[in-house]
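Possible regression after last week's pipeline update?

I re-ran a chain I had predicted before the update to compare outputs. Posting the input and the new output here so someone can diff against the archived version. Not blocking, just want to make sure nothing changed silently.
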Amino acid sequence: MSITRNQRNQLIGADHEPVFSAKVTSFNSSTNYVVPSKTTSVTYLVVAGGGAGGRIGGGGGAGGFRSSVPGAASGGGASAEPALTVTAGSTVPVVVGGGGPGTTSGNGNWRPGNDSSFGPIASVKGGSGGNRFAYTTPSGTAGGSQLAQDGGSGGGAGIWYSVGNYPDGDASGRGTANQGFPGGGARSPTHNYGCAVGGGGASEAGQKGNPDNVIGGRGGQGVSSSITGSPVAYADGGGGASGDTGLSVPNDKGGAPGPGGSGGTGYGSGDHPALHATDAAANRGGGGGGSGYGPATPSFAVVGAGGSGFVAVNDPFGDFAASSVWNLRKVYELKKDGDWI
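New output (post-update):
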């Protein structure tokens, strides 16, 4: 039986054109992304590292949250951003920011997260929670040890005790537009208990503490994204600490993280030894919990660390497949374009 020239140019079997489909690439650390040869635009999720909590203080602010996933929310109450135009064959730098570290170090040492980016798309680091007794007066005069920081989402104000009746929110950090929200407004107690404020999240401001029940403020809620498949919560604020000045408060509680759970829990100190606030989850950009204070040793707890950031890229032409066999000419074309592995 004779074989035609066309048959000699094929592998045995039916001839199929390749079918391109979307491919999501996730990044938990910094690297480079090489754009495939047929790709001209991608959608993305870029989450910065969250800030650490404050010492006897407020919850850390979540890292900035930016997303271009169609139909999904971005941070700060914004809708999805446009897809990013890219050049086929180019290299795009990917930076995944770390979270602010947990520490017992003294006042005045801010512990923000670190920025994350995918090429020109940059998300701002989460702000550190404020330490105790840090405030601003109506005239703008600063007092105390360390105000909460601004960031992608702002850190929560620290424990005030009875420092004065200043306006709500003066001591909490501000968020970045279209990325996150501020830490919650501070509340001056009417007695000698103190409750810190939750850090801001990607979709909600941090919450005030409740000194009447001695409960630290809850962190602000983050945003859930399904870019990698199943929904995952990112960028929740950290919970604020609760504490007292030696009075018996056995049931005081630290503030919870934002409802998505990616942030850390604040510590409720009471009359027992101060324990560590909890850290935010890795690669989800939440804020760390604020540490408490107790009269027993060790009296000063380690603040909760902020969560590291995360980057994901959805490439509409990132993957391809075909059933059966390939035409040799098509194999040659794909190899020439760098799409044959």
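Follow-up from reviewer: compared with the archived run. The first helix runs from residue 5 to 8. Marking as no regression found.
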